[in-house]
Specification:
Residues 1-21 are annotated as: Disordered. This protein is an alpha/beta fold and 553 residues long. The chain has helices at residues 2-11, 16-26, 42-49, 67-73, 94-101, 117-125, 137-143, 175-183, 235-252, 263-278, 298-302, 319-323, 341-351, 382-385, 397-400, 437-443, 476-485, 498-506, 533-539; strands at residues 36-37, 55-58, 64-65, 84-90, 105-112, 130-134, 152-160, 166-167, 188-196, 212-215, 221-222, 256-259, 288-290, 308-310, 354-357, 361-362, 368-369, 415-419, 460-463, 466-469, 510-511. Strands 1, 2, 4, 5, 6, 7, 8, 9 and 10 form a nine-stranded mixed β-sheet that branches. Strands 14-13-12-15-18-19-20-21 form an eight-stranded mixed β-sheet, with helices on both faces.
């Protein structure tokens, strides 16, 4: 036995990953200048660094894109680099899917595919790529440290020095998480930067984590994803906002929250300084946020509603504003915003009282999904924020207000709210008997149906008809009745019973606007604290600099 043990100890190598990395790096030493890749030779470097079958994480969340590196990857010789296993937070750019058509990549694990969702669905139907799983952001990040450890990480930053130290500025987002997963398991980390300079405002990621940097030929792509022009907010969305503020935020004393992106939530943000003020709610609700710096939050911030905001990422045009509001935003000594997608997702999952989102489809029991026939959009972070985390132990008035039992071990619950109009544009019903996600599961050969938020986690649903307080339902049948009551003229709503609705209203399981003191006739744009982008700029004192496409004056 001792001889066998000694033989194993002398023959087994424990540095195979490190040795493989050293070999790959040695192959590009004649191309690079220290850690710096010449801009025009990045494709050549990728061809030497990448090995067929590699697991590659490419930074590309729903805002910030390593666009120079993704374009370079699409140009590698597919006879040298092929069958890559791609890990993408967001499939957002055409080349993210081009690499599968050319054979450079074979399999993908991802979280979101909004801009490419239609093409993604078609490619799956045509068997042009292999599906791993559709993840939430936190789930995907977590697997990078367990069973999806990357061989190569391709990321983006604002600036680097020649030692590889990175400054990520206002859009740190997921960069540190992607880098760390590769850097500490002997993966290779390549960062594209807008500028290589000796003078960094601060070091966000140390050079010892970075192997190679390249100055891109254009700044990385950054989308103003969370900007909503108040001009497009409708009276219907204002009604939904009034119902949410009165029937949920006030009722449950919601102080910490996350808003999803959309006009429904933008309307809520713009009604806080007006409608919320008229209800005497300032200082009582909506004080602490996990939220990107939405421009529609400016009036609420300026009028003293908001105490703190931690951001997933930045927002184009909000850089000067966040820098001048350090009492509200997390900022560095240089004044720039410090965002962190991983930490903000965790805050949105565990630290907030409430999540508000929307969906494309909701079934008769409250299960919802943005994955529909012919459109494989994925989820992003909604399932992280949109569920009741079993690990939570701290209590707040809102969390405790979900208790419906006298059990000695009863616990509170996070408020998970879906705010939707009963029909989408084109009169397509949101409320359906069966989610398309079930069919997509079969077509894409997924192990489970891609449900975004499970009905058991949803506590409230708000429509133009009223609010269903699902957490009060005593059975699945009563849950279905409550949803039918506020589902309008949809396949779910037409099955409601008027007698049941009267009982549900009396028991507080369903509330009409009039039950909450909300007058439909008063739901109009006069409540908006800012009615267009120009007024948002005025509220900011000129600090907000909206992108050109949002300038209408």
């Amino acid at each position: 036995m001792a001889d066998i043990k000694q033989k194993q100890q002398t023959t087994k190598s424990w540095t195979t990953r490190r040795d493989a990395k050293t070999k790959r790096m040695n192959q590009v030493m004649n191309i690079t200048d220290g850690r710096v890749i010449p801009t025009d030779r990045v494709v050549e470097v990728l061809e030497e660094i990448l090995v067929p079958g590699d697991r590659v994480v490419l930074e590309g969340n729903n805002q910030k894109q390593a666009s120079f590196l993704s374009n370079a990857l699409a140009q590698v010789n597919s006879t040298k680099v092929y069958d890559l296993h791609m890990i993408l937070s967001s499939i957002s750019r055409p080349e993210h899917l081009d690499i599968f058509e050319t054979g450079i990549a074979e399999k993908v694990d991802f979280a979101y595919a909004g801009p490419q969702s239609l093409r993604m669905a078609q490619m799956i139907e045509d068997k042009e790529l292999k599906m791993g799983e559709i993840h939430t952001y936190i789930e995907l990040y977590g697997r990078l440290f367990i069973d999806l450890i990357p061989s190569v990480a391709l990321v983006a930053a604002d600036k680097a020095d020649r030692e590889g130290n990175l400054y990520t500025g206002a859009n740190t987002e997921e960069t540190p998480t992607l880098v760390e997963a590769a850097a500490f398991r002997d993966g290779i980390v390549i960062a594209q930067v807008n500028e290589i300079t000796d003078d960094l405002p601060r070091v966000d990621i140390p050079g010892s984590w970075i192997d190679l940097v390249v100055e891109a030929d254009a700044p990385y792509q950054l989308e103003p994803l969370f900007t909503r022009d108040p001009r497009h907010i409708t009276d219907m969305q204002i009604l939904l906002a009034m119902l949410t503020i009165r029937g949920i935020y006030e009722k449950h004393q919601v102080q910490s929250l996350n808003h999803g992106v959309g006009y429904n939530t933008a309307a809520i943000e713009l009604l806080l300084p007006t409608y919320g003020e008229s209800l005497g709610l300032k200082g009582k609700i909506c004080k602490h946020w996990a939220l990107n710096p939405h421009p529609t939050m400016i009036p609420a911030i300026e009028s003293g509603w908001v105490e703190s905001i931690h951001c997933f990422g930045g927002e184009v045009g909000m850089e000067d504003y966040t820098s001048e509001r350090p009492d509200v935003f997390f900022t560095g000594r240089d004044g720039s915003l410090r965002s962190n997608r991983t930490l903000s997702q965790l805050a949105g999952q565990y630290a907030v009282d409430l999540f508000v989102g929307s969906s494309l489809q909701i079934d008769s029991y409250g299960n919802s999904s943005t994955v529909t026939k012919g459109r494989l959009a994925g989820f992003g972070g909604a399932p992280n924020m949109g569920h009741d985390p079993g690990g939570r132990r701290h209590s707040t008035p809102a969390w405790l207000s979900m208790i419906n039992s006298d059990d000695a071990l009863v616990r509170g619950k996070k408020l998970v709210v879906q705010v939707v109009e009963t029909h989408q544009t084109g009169n397509t019903p949101v409320f359906v008997e069966s989610l398309d996600a079930i069919d997509v599961k079969n077509e894409a050969e997924l192990a489970t149906a891609p449900v975004m938020i499970y009905g058991e986690d949803v506590t409230h649903v708000v429509t133009e008809e009223g609010i269903a307080y699902l957490y009060k339902a005593k059975s699945l049948e009563e849950r279905r009745e409550a949803l039918a009551a506020i589902a309008g003229v949809t396949p779910v709503g037409i099955k409601h019973s008027p007698r049941n609705i009267d009982r549900l209203r009396q028991e507080g399981i369903v509330a009409w606007p009039e039950d909450l003191g909300v007058r439909r006739s008063e739901a109009n744009r006069s409540w908006l604290a800012a009615k267009n982008v120009e007024e948002l700029v005025e509220w900011s004192g000129g600090l907000y600099q909206p992108p050109e496409k949002f300038r209408s004056w």
